[in-house]
Amino acid sequence: MAQQQNGGPMVEGKVVVVTGAGGGIGRDIALALAAEGARVVVNDIGTSTSGEGQDAGPAQQVVEEIRAAGGQAVASTDSVAESLAAGRIVQCALDTFGRIDGVVNNAGILRDRFFHKMSLDEWDAVLKVHLYGSYYMSRAAASHFKEQESGAFVHMTSTSGLIGNFGQANYSAAKLALVALSKSIALDMQKFHVRSNCIAPFAWSRMIGSIPTDTPEQQARVAKIQQMTPAKIAPLAVYLLSDAAREVNAQVFAVRNNEIFLMSQPRPLRSVHQGGGWTPQDIAQHAMPALRSSFVPMERSGDVFSWDPV
């Protein structure tokens, strides 16, 4: 659990909902929040990483861990992928603790498939949990945040969306859309002192536990990824939900072991201008050759974050 530093607990008295908190990153965030004084709604429907099966155990187990350490928590097993169920998750915070101060949109599933083989169900299922789920949760909390003129959202995005990856069109689309959703929430609700930020986590979890380990090289890569424990993500999430982060809004961070990154957001790179406008032929002959040196390379996350975690 997170250690107390620099005086009192960072989120003393706050009530925070953490979705997908039965294991992995969500669990560590829930534990860290509780250690820093928050009362936590531990939400997890207890399915596999692909969304199958259901088990109330994981959420309750994390609640017991928090209580054993002297913290306050309650389990929720509703699904974020349905609006009414998401509403019940927020209501659980209100019924149990009397208020809501923060939401961590962490719940997720994977249905990896190369795009030309992806089924409609594989697309829908992932969008429903990651994007719709984050919208449903945020929308359910937003009315309460507006009324009390305070509140904070932390959404889990991914470099698969920010940069790119193979076989994850559904996941990547949802995760990049989540960045735009977060920015919109931040812009629309800043006048009510509501903040919305994203974290792209690098961490060993069930989500990436399916990486093959058939060769020594693959085994070495997985060993390095395993150093990046979910506990490394939790401190930034706790900070972003605290009053100490009151000036931090609409940002995208990444956490990779002991590194914290501020990620860029799309801005113009360069332009070309032609007084009389452009024909397709002019574009081919002049515009594209002028712009080509600034083209964004066809990289995936591993190409950009190419060094070993430290």
UniProtKB/TrEMBL annotation:
**Gene3D superfamilies linked to this entry:** NAD(P)-binding Rossmann-like Domain
Domain Ketoreductase, chain residue ranges per copy: 14-210
Cite a single Pfam family from the UniProt record.
Answer: adh_short
Q: Which residues cross the membrane?
A: none
The entry's family comment says:
Belongs to the short-chain dehydrogenases/reductases (SDR) family.
State the protein's name.
NAD(P)-dependent dehydrogenase, short-chain alcohol dehydrogenase family
